[in-house]
Write a structure and sequence with these properties.
single chain, about 210 residues, mainly alpha, two-stranded antiparallel sheet
């Protein structure tokens, strides 16, 4: 048996039905007048699905935010940073210069700071760390690390360690008759003092003012 359309609500009804099961209209009047037009069976469209974000399983680490963009701006450095950073560059280079030398029969034999004292490798690595740290501070307003450290104490401790090790290295000359200091040791000592001075002097003044 085919389907026809209700003239009132256009719902599909069986041919020969007297009343529309949807709106109750009398279908016999439609048969006496205009014929009811057949319609195709109504097929309901599937309900739209909404994609939900996958639930985070227990123990799964939370998504981390992207690393902020690096933009180098030297204006982020203070005057103390500029002085200490420049002196640290000189100190780094001075470790490869002649620190000690000996003259014999018209010939002079020299040794660099790193070749004279193995512990000066700490100064080399610490100087490199200071320079990387200063470059990072010039590139980001806030360093993208979880641990928040005060800037002045970090610089003070790092430069003070460098000064202590350089001073020990200058005073402890390697063994050998007639061995003397070369210009590299003096450059290193001056650079280490200049690196720590702009940080240590304000800290000492602030400490004295609190007394």
């Amino acid at each position: 048996m085919g389907l026809a359309a209700c003239p009132n609500c256009h719902n599909g009804v069986s041919e020969g039905a007297r009343f529309c099961p949807q709106c109750g209209s009398d279908l016999t009047a439609s048969r006496d007048g205009d014929p009811v037009s057949p319609v195709a069976p109504h097929v309901s469209a599937p309900a739209p699905t909404i994609a939900l974000p996958a639930a985070q399983s227990p123990g799964q680490p939370a998504a981390t935010s992207a690393l902020p963009a690096f933009k180098f701006e030297a204006l982020r450095w203070s005057t103390a940073d500029r002085i200490s950073g420049s002196a640290t560059v000189v100190l780094f280079i001075s470790l490869f210069l002649p620190w000690f030398g000996v003259s014999s029969f018209g010939y002079t034999v020299t040794a660099s700071g790193l070749s004279s004292h193995g512990f000066l490798i700490i100064v080399l690595l610490l100087s490199l760390a200071i320079l990387v740290y200063l470059v990072a501070r010039a590139g980001w307003d806030r360093l993208p690390i979880g641990i928040r450290l005060a800037h002045a104490p970090v610089m003070l401790v790092a430069t003070a360690i460098n000064l202590s090790l350089v001073l020990i290295g200058v005073l402890l000359k390697p063994g050998g008759s007639g061995l003397g200091w070369a210009f590299g040791s003096f450059v290193a000592l001056i650079a280490a003092v200049v690196a720590v001075a702009p940080i240590a002097i304000p800290a000492l003044k602030e400490r004295n003012s609190r007394r």
